[in-house]
Amino acid sequence: MRRRTALRSLLTGVAGISIQSANGLPTAFESSPLKGNIRHSVCSWTFDDFTLDELCLTVKKIGFKAIDLVAPSGFKTLNDHGIDCSMCYTAGKISLTEGWNRPENHPWLIKDFLDAIPVIAKAGYKNLICFTGNRNGMDDETGLKNCVTGLKQILSVAEKHGVVIQLELFNSKVDHKDYMADRSAWGIELCKRLGSSHFKLLYDIYHMQISEGDVIRTIQENHPYFGHYHTAGVPGRHEIDETQELYYPAIMQAIHKTGYTGYVAQEFLSTSKDRAGKINSLKNAIRICDI
Q: What's phi and psi for 68, nearest 5 deg?
């Protein structure tokens, strides 16, 4: 009951405090500033009915200044609004199923990443996402060896430019069937074999709750390998409120206590059908995570 009471208090505190303009964008928010213990962001694809300009205006009025998962084509827009790209894409092919675990993908992946790294660094950003791809019958050890072979060919350039390559962990049970990096232990082993501070894991809390649970202990024991975090509610990938099984204030406290200074990006899919409702969902999520 204490958990429900706490979340209800958080949500009550942020309800009804914004005025919506005709296009659904917020025009006013509560005056209390964010606390600064967590650096907040939001994944662009979860607001795909907003232009990047509109999303920039939205996050600034909520009180944070970062957007995840933007390609170089959007960097000028971010810069115009003074928004950080907390996680970048390359300008080339983006595939979640075809990745670094297969040598036949290495030529185009290496080119895309070597092209992107200097561009990202020049723009003042530092995180670049990557994916293992699906197993398609491949065993864990072969996948690890193949990823090491390919990623080693870009890491020296990433190190030179101060860019961190971040491998996202997905669940293969619900959302990404057959994805190889579906457990934190597998990703941590890859980090150890690569041995570079410029290669880390994007620890997606939603995905890893489905794959393995034990989220807070995993963060406490393995945080040096985690360079970025995503959120969403379990089950359903919706709002991170009292309707789901994860208690995000405690998770954020655990992340903060590790000394983490990177971003936590909201990646839930709002259950609201209108723009104003989606904005309120994001606002609520930011306040829940603002410990």
A: -90, 155
- Report CA torsion sign: 25, 88, 261, 258: positive
Please answer whether residues 46 and 39 qualify as being in contact, where contact means their C-beta atoms are separated by less than 8 angstroms. no
CATH number at residue 80: 3.20.20.150
Q: What is the pLDDT of residues 225-249, one digit of tens each?
A: 999 999 999 999 999 999 999 999 9
Total structural domains in the chain? 1
> pLDDT digits over 47-105, tens only?
999 999 999 999 999 999 999 999 999 999 999 999 999 999 999 999 999 999 999 99
Helix intervals (H) in the chain? 2-14, 52-62, 75-81, 106-123, 140-161, 184-194, 205-211, 215-222, 248-257, 275-289
**Separation of alpha carbons 95 and 84, rounded Å:** 23
Distance CA 191, CA 99 (A): 16
What sign does the CA torsion over 189, 225, 72, 42 have? positive
Across the chain, mean pLDDT equals 92
Neighbours of 285 (CB within 10 A): 25
Domain that residue 124 falls in: 2-289
Residue 177: per-residue pLDDT: 98
Q: How far is CA 131 from the centre of its chain?
A: 13
pLDDT score for 32: 79
Residue with tokens 């795909």: 48
Asked whether 271 and 231 are in contact (CB, 8 A), the reply is no
Of 25, 73, 69, the closest CA to residue 49 belongs to 25
Contact 84, 121 (CB under 8 A): no
